[in-house]
Amino acid sequence: MANNMIRRLVVLGGLSIIGIIFVQSYWLLKTWDIKDKEFDQTARIVLRNVAERMSTFSKTILPKTDLIQRKSSNYYAVNINSEIDAGLLEQYLLQEMNKQSLNIDFEYAVYDCTTDQLVYGNYCSNKPVPEKEIVKNKNLPKFNDLIYYFVVRFPNRESFLLANRNMTLTLTILSVLAIGFFMYSMWVIMEQKRLSELQKDFINNMTHEFKTPISSIKIASDFLSNDQNLKSDQRLSRYVQIIKEQNMRLNDQVEKVLNVARLEKDSIQLKKEVFDVNECLKSIVNNESLKLKKDKIDYIGKDKSIYIEADRLHFVNIIANMIDNAIKYSREDPRVQVILSELPNRIQVSVKDNGVGIDKENQKKLFEKFYRVSTGNLHDVKGFGLGLYYVKNICDAHGWNLTVASVPGEGSEFIISIPNFNEA
User: Fold this and answer.
1) How many angstroms separate the CA atoms of 69 and 78, rounded?
2) In this model, does residue 119 exceed pLDDT 60?
3) Taking Cα atoms as reference points, which of 418, 380, 384 lies closest to residue 398?
4) What is the reported pTM?
């Protein structure tokens, strides 16, 4: 994954996380505010009904203003113009809370104007609660501007509101888990990216280091092959030829790795030029034919010059790669054809073989890096699986279309479609 893509993913992920946290926080606060208002409204209805019943019982008139005052989120005072019977008050409170389905614990106290003290009443609960778990607050604050009043406190208001928000809390927990999973995934991606970069740097440095001994071996093998004493000894001459062939093969593999490394770092700069593709293909076929003991590569070209605009070095490399693949995956008697065709506004270069062919399932993954078509238990096909990956990337860089047609058991044909350059 490219560094730019990683940065974009991190930025977009970070913005998404901030957005999710903002929206979730907003709705949590909004929901809490709504629930708090609902609770306050229900509590006021209960206390008003209790006050009206108390005034009816005592045959007094309730104050027209400030009947119910809220001193804190869970503490209320109810102002009435008569003395209060604590036992009757508790009965009315329980009845009215049951009517409004306000199933919450509460404690109350009644103000005694003779002693100027709040006389604690009782702690009431809808469900049995062990005495040791009840925390009574007998020092409830007074309201100095009231004379005949009672107070009610809801000690478990917060837990009561939370208990009615199970769905919201569940969604919040899921959101937090999703955010945590995303952040962990990003950490894993960044760690994998770092390890991948270390691996690539190691492979690239090691591959570059191979170039020096490969060059030295080539110089030494060329010197030995020209030595007259060695030429007269067929056995030693054959050994020298093996050294040259294997050195050439090793150099080809190193070049493939280096080319792929340049592709991944976007460091390949195409040096396009106009050249005769017909003559270029003839030269490639002649060079590749030297790798076989017999002439097994046929070139079907044109009798005239046909020009294209491309990076000549990379064009030679991708055609050579396709020919090399055709030879690798052919039978004991390989026959490879390189065909140049001219179509309206474009030309086609195809490499056709009589090899084992490729089924449709493998064709989908054919141009992936390190992918190699399975040959069962046979391991006679050597390579890294980089050749066609390189071919595909170079074609894409030029804007060319690369296709494959293959039938298992009958062979394969790789076709490159290139715009025809009309030289002025």
Assistant:
1) 7
2) yes
3) 418
4) 0.49
